[in-house]
Amino acid sequence: MTVTQNILPWQKRHWDLLCSYIKQDRVPQALLITGTNGLGKHRLAKQFARSLLCTNRQDDGLCCGHCNSCHLIKADTHPDLKHIKPDEEKKTISINQIRQVVTDTYLKPQFEAYRVIIISPADVMTGQAANAFLKCLEEPTERTVFILITDKPNKLPATIISRCQKLSVTLPEKKILNEWLKEQGIHNNQETLINLVQGSILTTQQLSNNDLLKQRTDCFDDWVAIAKHTNHPAIISEKWQKLPETELLNWLISWVTDLIKYACLINPRQLCNQDMANSLQELAQRLDLKRLYGLYDRLLINRRLLGTQINSQIMIEEILVQWQQLNGRS
User: Fold this and answer.
1) Domain residue extents for the chain
2) Which residues pair with 33 in a beta bridge?
3) Contact by Cβ (8 Å): 323, 316
4) Average of per-residue pLDDT values in the chain
5) Class for the domain spanning 3-168
6) pLDDT, tens only, 187-209
7) Hey, which residues does 116 pair with through a beta bridge?
8) For residue range 111-129, what is the model confidence (pLDDT) as tens digits?
9) 54: phi > 0 → left, psi -120 to 50 → alpha, else beta; which?
10) Rounded to whole angstroms, how far apart are CA atoms 25 and 328?
């Protein structure tokens, strides 16, 4: 992949803003990039970091890809670029990780450009870690830029948000996505893929992942089997343990949302899962709308609990039990 391909079409205005910071020598000490999952926030952040560190930046603001700094970044060995994320097997960013960052900022960057520290997802910092990071923001050091990435900004302390320059990556128009998909050589299932992206269900890196689409179809078949009482919630919840939690819950939410649309006689063309329209219509005909809203509320609450100590298998099993009860006996 060439350097210029790292800016996604729907990020052009965001990139222009970031370039203006560099050209005007007004680079913020802390940049908070928000937006729903799947819009390329990490790619945008990494490209901004490359440009900040590049010593031969191009006219369009992109890094050159050939200077010493660019080579070090490609090798993942640049001393002035740090990525802070949860340690393996953990779901939070600890105070020790942030303390190390704070210690590093007391030293000048090793090169003449900036020091860039990317924290993602920023919302999983523990309370102690957030407090330590806030102190770092209150006492800025020379040529240090923090880039915080999150799709849950409401989980960040207001004191941190207030000290950040904010950049919100929003959902692109379907036309832009459609053209981009064609450029990627993706010609099948375009309508379904676009709808899923609009619902923040697939990341841009997963758009052409046929395995993920098959997993979604298999999960829907399990969902229907639960409704028809031909399979048991405990069996399916155990089976689904191997699936990514965020994608799974988003699929469930999208199916329930489409069922509500059917029950409210919404135009089928507005469904997210148009490839499953016939099955969804059949299910919707025998469901109680009030109880369906109850399941929808539960799914939203459970999605907010992802990343906590909640037992995901028990959570999914309880959702499936409620779904089966909602369908009664076939």
Assistant:
1) 3-168, 209-327
2) 149, 167
3) no
4) 86
5) alpha beta
6) 666 666 666 665 555 555 565 56
7) 81, 145
8) 888 999 999 999 999 999 9
9) beta
10) 64
